[in-house]
Amino acid sequence: MFLIDDIVMAPLKGVFSLVKVIHDKVEEELYNPEKIQEDLMKLQLRFEMDEISEEEYDELEEELLGRLAESKKRAKMNAR
Fold this sequence. Notes:
Mean pLDDT: 91
Low-confidence stretches: none
Number of helices: 3
Shape: elongated
Radius of gyration: 20 Å
Number of domains: 2
Distance between the termini: 42 Å
Largest sheet: none
Number of strands: 0
Strand content: under 5%
């Protein structure tokens, strides 16, 4: 019976492991402090070139700073 279960569950285990790998890569990119700082510089440049309004700038900056704070918190947790 366990052999049949393993055969039936094998494709699902593969899908779950693939989803985990994708999730980990997305989080790695999303909370990469160097990438976030680069995005902050690009945002500042867009604002200085009048490509975005001050309101848009403030909103996007707040989001990026929140991600940066979260990345620092995650780094502290991983360092333990």
